[in-house]
Amino acid sequence: MLRSLVGSEMCIRDRCSQAAFAHPRDTTITALAFDCLQQIGYVSTMASVHVLKRGLAAKEFETLGRHEWHHGSVRCMHLNSVGSLLFTGGFDMSIAVVSVSCPDKPVVLQRLECHQASVTQLGYCMAANALVSTDARGRLLIWDLKSYQVIQDQYAHPGQEVHSLQFHDLAKIALSAGADHTISVWNVDLAPHLEQISQLIAHTECADNLPSAVTGTSADAKDLF
Predict the structure, then answer these.
(1) Over 50: is that where the pLDDT of 210 sits?
(2) Looking at residue 72, what is its pLDDT?
């Protein structure tokens, strides 16, 4: 199973690197997301977001569209639990909320602008239907997806980039890892508000690997494919 998941990720990466994309920076992949039910892959590059549909053959992907939702590169991407909303965060300090119910015709519903640094991680809290975003200055924001307003604003890793963010809905906890070499554990039982319940100090060698060890783009992609 794991071999199949990793293979699917490599197939999408190969598909992107070999395709004749319009922009030369499109060959650099920055984030991946995959909708298992619809067999749709979302691939962000330095220039845009590509929507790919998986074909009958294992290595066959059809390009459904190319979209530029940010002024600059996309840093992170996340699908909600039912695959109807795609969230993208960029170096332009904004978040795009995109309806992907029809993957071939995605619609930008809202642009969220409150961060003062590039958006590094995104997470979806299913219990509260809320979006959690972090940035390069260690800030953590929680957004109400009905009003698109910030309902919690705090520094998870003050002054340091947040590398990783992971939710575990059954355990009702969230983990964040930062460049300050710490891992913060958050209680989501009071969602949509997060309460920090502990903080672990990691060794420098371990902290450098936190994006793949705790969560992050590459780890999430392997789990989804």
Answers:
(1) no
(2) 83
